[in-house]
Amino acid sequence: MRRLSGFNVVSLTLGFTFLYLPMVILVIYSFNESKLVTVWAGFSTKWYGELMRNEAFLDAALVTLKVAVMTSTLATILGTCAAYVLVRIHRFPGRTLFAGMTYAPLVMPDVILGLSLLLLFIGIGLDRGVLTIVLAHTTFAMCYVSVVVTSRLVAFDESLEEAALDLGATQWETFRLITLPIIAPAVISGWLLSFTLSLDDLVIASFTAGPSSTTLPMKIFSAVRLGVSPEINALSTIMIALVTVGVITASLMSKSAAIRKAKDEKAAARA
Which residues of the chain have pLDDT under 70? Predict the structure, then answer.
């Protein structure tokens, strides 16, 4: 096992400091007594209480969670289907166009995507609101799910599906009982990734949101333009905590799945 050199240690330290030190400072100042975010006046949790009484932030948070859950669910279904088609069906008319349209949002600027979707919704007469935000977020989130699931399907042992089909299972039963449980970690990862992307989006939501569907990033951005308040620090700290719990949970689930897979392989080898 290679040991880390001094250069690598310094590089890692500087990199992690650059990434996480601002978050640490934000969390610390969310417990600041003073209303001035740059002046420490003692430890206090009053801004969390103020945040819980701020209906504007709470309504925006509820809209954001609703949009993120619906977006991640819809994007996971569509992205998984797209990945399955691209990996399992090697030739069909328009395959290149389908693949290009699936992955295009990965490289398309958010401003262009948001503007084009806005023009589409206006053209078809669809009022802007939660539905339009969900549709817009699904458009760019499903391509990330497709990439994650595709990487798992490429390494999938197709002989397992062939064995199930030989034993009399239908295509749907094979996918539901064999394929889906094996690729489940990738599907869950895609869901979490699309959830995070939807939770974090500002640009596309700004184009597709209506007057009664302000998301949390939009609310924070508009509030920051008037000055950073300790309530925003408290809100950001809560979001950091939720994301951290989600990442740790996903990591534990992936680790337990890998352990179960290793145990099953050992049991099969002994048998």
Answer: 1-2, 4, 37, 228, 264-265, 267-269, 271
Structural domain contains residue 9? no
CATH number at residue 134: 1.10.3720.10
DSSP sequence for 56-84: HHHHHHHHHHHHHHHHHHHHHHHHHHHHH
- Please check whether residue 209 lies inside any domain of the structure: yes
The total of structural domains in the chain comes to: 1
Q: Is the dihedral of CA 182, 185, 189, 192 positive or negative?
A: positive
> What is each CA distance from 162 to 166, 167, 175, 205, 267, in whole angstroms?
6, 9, 11, 44, 22
Q: Which residues contact 61 (CB under 8 A, 6 or more apart)?
A: 216, 235
* Residue 195 maps to a domain: yes
Instruction: Determine the pLDDT at residue 73.
Output: 93
Residue 240 in domain: no
CA 67 – CA 187 distance, rounded (Å): 19
Average pLDDT score, the chain: 84
Question: What DSSP state is assigned to residue 36?
Answer: S
3-state helix/strand/coil string of 103-126:
HHHHHCCHHHHHHHHHHHHHHCCC
* String of DSSP letters for 224-257: HTT---HHHHHHHHHHHHHHHHHHHHHHHHHHHH
Long-range contacts of 1-7 (CB under 8 A, 24+ apart): none
Q: Which residue segment(s) compose the domain that 73 sits in?
A: 49-227
